[in-house]
Design a protein that fits this description.
The chain is an alpha+beta fold. It has 3 domains: 58-73 and 266-314 and 330-405, Efflux pump adaptor protein, beta barrel domain (Elongation Factor Tu (Ef-tu), domain 3, Beta Barrel), CATH 2.40.30; 75-106 and 230-261, Beta Barrel (OB fold (Dihydrolipoamide Acetyltransferase, E2P)), CATH 2.40.50.100; 109-228. The protein has helices at 2-10, 12-22, 36-39, 41-61, 109-166, 173-227, 364-368, 374-385, 387-406, and strands spanning 64-69, 75-77, 83-88, 95-97, 102-106, 230-232, 237-240, 249-250, 258-262, 270-274, 287-292, 300-307, 334-340, 354-360. It has a 6-stranded antiparallel β-barrel with strand order 1-10-13-12-11-14. Strands 2-9-7-4 form a 4-stranded antiparallel beta sheet, with no helix packed on it. A 4-stranded antiparallel beta sheet has the order 6-5-3-8, with no helix packed on it. The chain is elongated, with a radius of gyration of 46 Å. The protein starts with a helix and ends in a 5-residue tail after the last helix. The mean pLDDT is 80.
Length: 411
């Protein structure tokens, strides 16, 4: 409507002034309701053509959309393990929580039993280490006893052999053989005693420490599992839809306990979907404005911080069926990220609110450069100036939005 009024001032009004003052035709006499088309046909046709062109220029270079929303992230409140609720720390369906604050606790009897079993295993290994020290001392005593017995047998054998060399009749050969067998047996006993000592030393240096480390690892795992039974808030925020009660069964995959909305979620970014035809116009750094339904009569200055370079409607996942282009019900939009131009720009706007967004093209840098001619610079000036029309339209929409919502929408 604004475009039509603006164009009529440049076309229909001059045509009427020419008819009135140059040709002397009077309104209500020569120019009547029935002769308007014939008398002002040039102005009307020019006005319609100029209006269509102006609307095209405005909507292409200064795109607008009603598909703008302040999205916010939600965190499902779910434990890492399944279990029965033993205690609930948050009261009510909705409540504020701080980071690290407990929300609810599961029954931890199984985890505590596993931890106690691991502690008993550690105590058992430590007792075995004390016992192994005693075994080493006993093996050392047996080794010394076997070494003494061996030395005694060797001395006796050498004495008998020396006597046999001097006079064979003094010592019988059978007695020497018995002493030789005795020496062999006592050497074996000494080797067995030393092997028992080495086995005890290996047990206390390798086996028992490894068993103790395994028991300590089992205790640490049991403690970790016990800690998992207390579900805490990962970030500060607000717990919503929390209906959990003592005795309920909670499953991390099938039944979350509620949702946690972080404090800063939905406070920094507005996501807007613009038409695909405006993909070449939308650039990061463009100035924009939004008007949200939850904060009427307010226009918030924004800036484009990012433009998604793909359209969600064209995505697919690999499977056994080929993709048919007709499956896309409607063309997707270009997703644009808008952030407030000033600190606290979204204060007072409810998270999840629907908004109207305008983005404005600025050719100031191109005009300031010397690479374009005067005619092109004038055209770029005109394109930038047409953004004023879109800004006025946005303010009119913000002005009538409460009336349209409360009166004409059947509220």
């Amino acid at each position: 409507m604004l475009e039509l009024l603006l164009c009529s001032v440049l076309t229909i009004l001059p045509d009427y002034l020419f008819r009135r003052f140059a040709q002397g035709k009077r309104l209500g006499k020569e120019i009547t309701l029935y002769s308007v088309w014939f008398e002002l046909r040039w102005g009307i046709i020019t006005c319609l053509m100029l209006t269509v062109g102006l609307i095209t220029v405005i909507f292409y270079n200064h795109p607008s959309t009603t598909s703008a929303t302040i999205y916010f992230r939600t965190i499902p409140i779910a434990p890492e393990i399944s279990g029965r609720v033993a205690q609930v720390y948050v009261t009510g369906v909705s409540s504020e929580v701080k980071q690290g604050a407990p929300i609810f606790r599961l029954d931890s009897s199984t985890q505590e039993a596993a931890a106690e079993a691991a502690r008993r295993k550690i105590a058992e290994v430590e007792a075995s280490m004390v016992s192994a020290q005693t075994d080493i001392a006993a093996a050392e005593g047996r080794a010394q006893e076997a070494a003494s017995s061996l030395q005694q047998a060797v001395d006796e054998l050498e004495t008998k052999q020396e006597l046999n060399r001097r006079n064979a009749a003094i010592v019988a050969v059978r007695e020497i053989e018995k002493l030789q067998n005795l020496v062999k047996g006592r050497r074996g006993a000494l080797a067995a005693a030393r092997a028992a000592k080495q086995a005890a030393e290996a047990q206390i240096s390798s086996l028992l420490p490894a068993q103790k480390a395994s028991a300590e690892a089992a205790l640490a795992q049991a403690e970790v599992e016990r800690v998992k039974t207390v579900i805490r808030a990962g970030v500060s925020g607000r717990v919503e839809q929390f209906t959990l009660r003592v005795g309920d069964i909670v499953n991390p995959f099938l039944r979350p306990a509620g949702v946690l909305i972080p404090d800063l979620a939905g406070r920094k970014t507005v996501l807007a979907g613009f038409g695909q035809i405006e993909a070449q116009v939308m650039k990061a750094g463009m100035v924009a404005e939004v008007a949200c339904a939850s904060k009427p009569w307010s226009v918030i200055p924004m800036v484009v911080t990012g433009v998604q370079d793909f359209i969600a409607a064209g995505q697919f996942r690999g499977g056994e069926h080929l993709v048919d282009a007709q499956q896309v019900a409607r063309p997707g939009t270009i997703l644009v990220f808008l952030e407030p131009l000033y600190e606290g720009g979204l204060d007072g706007v409810t998270r999840g609110s629907s908004c109207i967004a305008n983005a404005y093209t600025s050719n100031h840098d191109r005009i300031a450069s010397e690479s374009i001619g005067p005619l092109k610079g004038l055209a770029l000036h005109a394109i930038d100036a047409t953004g004023l029309v879109h800004a006025m339209i946005l303010r009119m929409q913000a002005l009538v939005l409460p009336i349209q919502t409360l009166v004409f929408s059947g509220h």
